[in-house]
Specification:
3-stranded antiparallel β-sheet
Length: 566
């Protein structure tokens, strides 16, 4: 099977039906490998995909998005809608009903009080919640009774499915996290590393940036699931080793995110031990431009904050030139093949929300040079451009990965051609995406001029994803360096348009606003420089059944249905 046929046949995964399990744990042990190792199991304190996905097997939301992007209930009895009365006629509230008799993994009841507490935890002004955009516009969360929780918005919210939907907004146990509100949140190591959950598995041992040992949750709501009694979730290494461990040696059952050149994946599949699965969603490899000064000469606490604007990346001409110099088609060719598409958009899908912007697809070194000339950046020593004593010299960082290092090398070459001096740095993915407020090397802290990575949004509506770029979402010391506005971009007009999106119900109008927001941070300002619309490619062993790849939620969204093919 070729990678191309795998991508084209991804829709066939929907037809996979989990086997009827004889009893919980009957299929023994399963091994998962993520070459980016989890560093925390609390999604509210990390924006890293590897942390969100590993935690998703342990703590769950009220509802998820399935492999088609449709909303499906998990802890909720049903998805609230206008039709069933769960969403108010004036669109200012949504009322969720929990399934009866739900238990936490410690055997205690799950109640609406836990849901209410989860909102208080993330919305605490000193907590630095990484998923704060999910709760935009929420004015109150009330536990009506043990099984009913009502979320009220400050104004009509046509898309009320931000709070408690998807892997980014799971329910945490109030009793476990009671003393972890606000600034205390990062200090609660036991809760953050060993959350009590409702998912199919619970943690028996967690070694950050290394391995998680798990066992079947004895209080999981389906007595026949999960099929596996125990699990080893190995983190670290690299994508090549992860792919080989499934496709060539059979040592592992599932390998996530095979960010490898297409010919490498093809060679691995010849090993015959497993198969790749792939699908496109909203995952975009991009460069983030730091609008603040990351200079180590600044006092700690002021570095990479709004107190000090960047000395030259605040110049629109510089940002545009950096984008114009990049050959996205070549990046796709060497990095992803059929599993990638060049893009100028932060939101590449669904079609309703995808801008028709294609300007950046023209590789234009001459144009970039002319733009910098016109802006007054002249070449000095070594051909590096400068103006008013400021040199165009950047530190460009990303996580350690063969494809990303290939991208860095090419981009450095193109930027050299336009007179931009570029220092490259790569950081272990476990650290880079870890979210440790004490580390200088996280993507949130952004102690560099530019950085490259990819992420996506859950579900098929990008409202919360776009809202993450508002002024108040910038990581800073006061938020424990959490927040998703990584560039520190701040434009009141953008914030106002996000608010307009939040109160707009008509789909075509929502699409129009979302496309404008996308263009504001890409085409118009170049604070985000999209590169590749990436297909998600993972692999599973031939003996692992029930796997349904999902690009709209956690990739491990249906791990309870996984089983061993006899």
């Amino acid at each position: 099977m070729t990678l191309k046929s795998t991508l084209l046949g991804a829709a066939a995964l929907v037809a996979l039906a989990p086997a009827a399990f004889a009893e919980r744990g009957a299929d023994g042990h399963v091994n998962i490998i993520y070459w980016q190792a989890p560093s925390i199991l609390n999604p509210y304190l990390s924006g890293g995909t590897k942390d969100l996905e590993s935690a998703s097997m342990i703590i769950e939301p009220l509802g998820r998005y399935d492999q088609t992007g449709a909303l499906v209930p998990f802890l909720a009895a049903e998805i609230p809608t206008l039709e069933n009365g769960g969403v108010s006629e004036d669109l200012t509230s949504i009322t969720w009903k929990l399934k009866p008799d739900l238990l936490w993994s410690d055997g205690t009841p799950v109640t609406a009080a836990d849901v209410k507490f989860t909102a208080e935890y993330c919305m605490h002004p000193e907590g630095g919640c990484a998923q704060a955009a999910k709760f935009d516009g929420v004015s109150a969360v009330e536990a009506i009774d043990d099984l009913t929780v009502k979320v009220t918005f400050s104004e009509a919210k046509p898309n009320p499915y931000g709070p408690f939907m998807g892997a980014q907004a799971p329910i945490i146990q109030a009793a476990q996290f009671a003393d972890c509100l606000g600034a205390k949140a990062p200090e609660c190591t036991e809760a953050n590393f060993n959350p009590i959950g409702t998912g199919p598995f619970r943690v028996t041992e967690f070694r950050p940036n290394d391995v998680i040992s798990l066992e079947a949750n004895p209080n999981y709501r389906d007595p026949a699931k999960p099929a596996f009694a125990t699990m080893t979730f190995k983190g670290g290494g690299d994508a090549t080793a992860a792919g080989r461990a499934v496709l060539e040696t059979g040592e592992f059952d599932y390998a996530w995110n095979l960010q490898l050149a297409p010919e490498v994946i093809e060679q691995m599949q010849a090993g015959g031990k497993g198969q790749t699965i792939a699908a496109f969603g909203s995952l975009v490899e991009r460069i983030m431009v730091n609008m603040t000064d990351p200079s180590p000469s600044l006092p700690e606490g002021e570095r990479a904050t709004a107190k000090h604007p960047h000395p030259f990346l605040t110049d629109p001409a510089v940002r545009q030139a950096l984008s114009m110099a990049i050959d996205r088609n070549l990046l796709v060719e060497i990095g992803y093949g059929q599993a990638g598409r060049p893009t100028c958009n932060l939101v590449p899908a669904p079609e309703l929300y995808a801008s028709d912007n294609t300007d950046c697809l023209t590789h234009d070194i001459a144009g970039a040079n002319a733009l910098l000339d016109e802006a007054g950046w002249t070449r000095g020593a070594g051909g590096i451009r400068e103006k008013d004593g400021v040199r165009l010299s950047v530190l460009f960082q990303t996580s350690t990965n063969a494809v990303r290092q290939d991208f860095q090398a090419l981009i450095k070459q193109w930027w050299d051609e336009i007179g931009v001096e570029t220092e490259l740095r790569n950081v272990s993915a476990s650290v880079f995406f870890g979210g440790d407020p004490g580390s200088p090397d996280t993507f949130q802290k952004f102690y560099a001029d530019l950085e490259m990575y990819a992420n996506n949004f859950d579900g098929t509506d990008p409202e919360a994803y776009l809202a993450a770029q508002t002024c108040d979402k910038a990581p800073r010391p006061e938020t424990q360096w959490q927040g998703e506005n990584i560039t520190r971009f701040c434009d009141p007009a953008y914030d106002a348009m996000v608010a307009e999106l939040g109160r707009t119900g008509e789909l075509e109008k929502r699409g129009e606003i979302a496309r404008k927001l996308n263009d504001m941070v890409t085409k118009e300002s170049n604070v985000i420089i999209p590169l590749v619309d990436r297909g998600r490619v993972s692999a599973h062993s031939n003996s692992l059944g029930g796997v349904v790849l999902n690009t709209w939620d956690s990739e491990l969204w249906n791990v309870a249905d996984w089983h061993r093919i006899k």
